[in-house]
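Anyone up for a design puzzle?
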């Protein structure tokens, strides 16, 4: 409760931890608001405040808010995020997110996923974005 999150992933996991621990609803709501208030005008979220919106941050924020019961697919914030994700998706179905990894710490090798040196975070972004978008699909009647 006393640790100040830096990234949207920190905020999302903190909120999910509070929800899983059955913390006070006021604390969960406050954690959710700290995510929701960072949604950008383009509908997405950024990993850090100084970065642009991307599919990794948007996917994880959207999924976490929904998983914690703080956002429903019909909510305006959810719909804006869906539009952001769909508008930034590549033709092959993936999303490109620029890596922030330090090369000395995380040496590059080819996995076959698109985007060369950005492929690892882009593959995770594609997973988070796809998971979040799946929540918006109405079940078959």
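Challenge accepted. My sequence:
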């Amino acid at each position: 409760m006393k640790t100040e999150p830096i990234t949207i992933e920190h905020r999302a996991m903190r909120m999910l931890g509070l929800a899983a621990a059955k913390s006070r609803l006021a604390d969960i709501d406050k954690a959710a608001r700290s995510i929701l208030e960072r949604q950008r005008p383009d509908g997405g979220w950024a990993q850090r405040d100084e970065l642009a919106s991307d599919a990794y941050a948007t996917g994880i924020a959207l999924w976490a808010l929904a998983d914690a019961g703080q956002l429903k697919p019909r909510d305006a914030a959810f719909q804006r995020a869906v539009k952001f994700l769909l508008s930034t998706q590549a033709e092959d179905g993936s999303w490109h997110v620029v890596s922030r990894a330090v090369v000395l710490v995380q040496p590059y090798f080819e996995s076959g996923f698109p985007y060369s040196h950005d492929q690892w975070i882009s593959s995770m972004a594609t997973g988070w974005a796809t998971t979040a978008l799946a929540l918006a699909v109405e079940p078959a009647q």
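A detail worth pointing out: The chain has a mean pLDDT of 92.
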